[in-house]
Design brief:
It is a single chain. Strands 1, 2, 3, 4, 5 and 6 form a 6-stranded antiparallel sheet that branches. Strands 7-8-9-10 form a 4-stranded antiparallel sheet, covered by helices on one side. The protein is 20% helix and 30% strand. It starts with a helix and ends in an 8-residue tail after the last helix. By secondary structure, it is of the alpha+beta class. It is built from 5 helices and 10 strands; from the N terminus they run H-H-E-E-E-E-E-E-H-E-E-E-E-H-H.
Length: 273
């Protein structure tokens, strides 16, 4: 326990689900779980066996209404990661406290852990945030496994970091034209959105996370990794200079098309941050 308390934690606090004895908290959304999964080197299902409160003076950085706890748990399943794990793990987690200053009752409960291995300390974990522990459920595991499968897929969409260029080109007919939105990605791979206009038809759009042409008319479905990469990371306001369309009308159309894409993607709802 002393070794774990000495670990340096460099992360931002997020609230966890409510459990017994703690006021109700919002449910984790798809984006919440994708955030945690994308940051974690290890995603584990564990059964809590022992919980001990860490003295507040030895637990700096806690959010109000939370205590820090040392937890020992039995490993039940490694959902992703290649670090060696034994039958048990130990870690620190911040838990919400009820009106009496008591944490949720976790002993013998199954939980998801989003973590990294601690170098040189087998069996010790560092959660990716102080509260990166979620209560286990069958439906939650099914959703989590789907996200993890998408993340490790060979054709997984790259992490979008912004908009590189925006260009509207009118067609030969009145009401015809196309906007290309070229995106920047963390790994430098290709990603683009195409918005197409045909006479008498509503605008249609699609996305490509490769050099291939976007599948216009089939935008990503809500709560998929493609949707998450766009809805949660495209800027609400275009950066200066990215709209390279020729002429005022073309620039206005390109910006309108970008707003159409944002509107159809909808809000990236996060309840844990």
């Amino acid at each position: 326990m002393a070794a774990l308390i000495g670990t340096t934690f460099t992360f931002h606090a997020l609230p966890v689900h409510a459990q017994a004895g703690v006021p109700s908290a919002p449910q984790a959304t798809y984006a919440d779980i994708a955030d945690l999964s994308d940051s974690a080197g290890l995603v584990i299902v564990a059964q809590v066996m022992k919980v001990m409160r860490v003295e507040d003076q030895r637990a700096p950085g806690r959010r109000p209404g939370h205590g820090r706890f040392y937890v020992e748990a039995r490993t039940k399943a490694l959902l992703t990661g290649n670090a060696p794990l034994g039958e048990s793990v130990k870690y620190l987690v911040d838990l919400p406290l009820d009106a009496r200053g008591k944490p949720p009752k976790l002993k013998k409960q199954a939980v998801f852990l989003f973590a990294r291995a601690v170098p040189g300390r087998p069996g010790e974990l560092q959660l990716v945030t102080p509260v990166a522990q979620e209560p286990w459920s069958a439906s939650g595991e099914a959703r989590l496994r789907g996200i993890l499968k998408s993340l490790v897929s060979p054709d997984a969409p790259a992490r979008v970091t912004g908009v590189r260029e925006l260009l509207y080109v009118p067609g030969n007919l009145a009401g015809q034209g196309e906007t290309q939105i070229f995106l920047t990605t963390r790994d430098g791979s290709a990603a683009s959105i195409t918005v197409r206009h045909d006479p008498g038809q509503p605008a249609a759009w699609g996305v490509s996370f490769s050099e291939l042409v976007a599948d216009v008319g089939n935008p990503p479905q809500h709560d998929t990794l493609e949707w998450y990469r766009l809805a949660c990371f495209l800027p609400n306001t275009l950066p200066p200079g990215v709209n390279v369309s020729e002429g005022y009308a073309a620039r206005m159309q390109a910006e309108a098309d970008y707003r159409v894409v944002l509107g159809e993607l909808g809000v990236c709802e996060r309840n844990l941050s």
